[in-house]
Design goal:
Strand content: over 45%
Strand order of the largest sheet: 5-6-7-10-11-13-14-15
Number of strands: 15
Distance between the termini: 49 Å
Number of domains: 2
Shape: elongated
Length: about 325
């Protein structure tokens, strides 16, 4: 229909052809022809006559004939530039997919927290004994929901950053009640009740800046492989990945919570004071994994408490990626 509309449009450009009382059409060769004319018997008419002549590409030409003009239309196949453009766009998408697949930040990290004293030991001295923690219950959870990496010419090495939300819990082992004033944080011994839960929690955002390395080869497909749909994608299997750098955290919420029994009833107490905890942290971080498995460790470069406000304690976290988002 579109072709016929175009041809009829061309015919309207020839008003002289329809002004004749009798118009005839005689194709000069055996090809597909559109005959336009007017005669006394049929009035205005349009006829299509199929022929057998072909062009060099094997396709028949289309011929439009009027009384005074003969128009030949040859059709040839031509590779559109959009095909090449689409392949280039697809290659860019695949490069992005590869970069995202071999970046191991986004996901849910879980681990345990510990404190190291001034002597580098997790067995704290007497001055800091009230901050002894139960490592099994001092849980760390991080939801890393944004990641970005700048590759250095290859997926094997790149600089990654991102954004996450972390929850750092410190479950105190001793039956003490934490308190603080303008000068320091300290503990008040409690004989009764016995706390079933006695913990500090910090919540905040975290941003990494790390160099990441991947060992597995992951070659980009050629345009020919894309056109033939021979590319099957990438896989993390048998990839050894390493990352090292720093993670900065900013804590916008602190809570101190106790849970205990009072005359057979369960009671919970919460306090949203800051307890002189440092509201930010800079930690050295290392991550290592194989395939989809990822382990991590973070050693704080800043102390737990504000300067000269509490015992000198350094947080340490070890864990694994429970769920990867890639």
């Amino acid at each position: 229909m579109r072709t016929l509309a175009v041809l009829l449009g061309l015919s309207l450009m020839q008003p002289a052809a329809f002004a004749q009382a009798d118009t005839t059409a005689s194709p000069a060769r055996n090809a597909t022809s559109l005959h336009l004319g007017v005669n006394n018997d049929e009035g205005a008419y349009a006829k299509i006559v199929q022929g057998s002549d072909t062009t060099k590409n094997g396709k028949q030409p289309t011929i439009i004939e009027t009384k005074r003009k003969r128009i030949t239309i040859n059709v040839e196949d031509k590779e559109w530039g959009s095909v090449t453009d689409s392949l280039e766009d697809r290659l860019k998408e695949i490069r992005t997919e590869r970069r995202d697949l071999f970046t191991y930040w986004a996901g849910i990290d879980v681990g345990v927290n510990a404190f190291m004293g001034a002597d580098g030991d997790t067995d704290l001295d007497a001055a800091a004994d009230f901050m002894q923690v139960d490592h099994r219950r001092s849980r760390f959870i991080s939801i890393n929901f944004i990641e970005q990496k700048i590759e250095f010419g290859t997926h094997h090495v790149g600089l990654l950053t991102g954004l996450g939300l972390e929850f750092a819990n410190y479950h105190l082992k001793n039956n003490n009640l934490l308190a603080y004033n303008a000068d320091s944080v300290f503990a008040l011994p409690v004989e009764s009740p016995e706390f079933r839960k006695n913990k500090l929690r910090q919540m905040g955002f975290r941003v990494p800046l790390m160099l990441e390395f991947n060992t597995k080869r992951a070659k980009l497909p050629t345009p020919e492989e894309l056109a033939a749909k021979a590319f099957k994608g990438f896989s993390q299997k048998r990839n050894v990945h390493l990352a090292a750098g720093v993670v900065g955290s900013w804590y916008f919420d602190t809570m101190y919570k106790q849970k205990f029994s009072d005359n057979g009833n369960t009671r919970k107490e919460r306090d949203k004071g800051d307890y002189l905890l440092r509201p930010y942290r800079l930690a050295a971080s290392a991550r290592i994994g194989y395939g989809s498995l990822n382990l991590f460790a973070e050693y704080s470069l800043t102390p737990l408490f504000n300067d000269d406000k509490g015992p000198e304690l350094t947080p340490l976290t070890v864990g694994l990626t429970l769920i990867g988002f890639n």
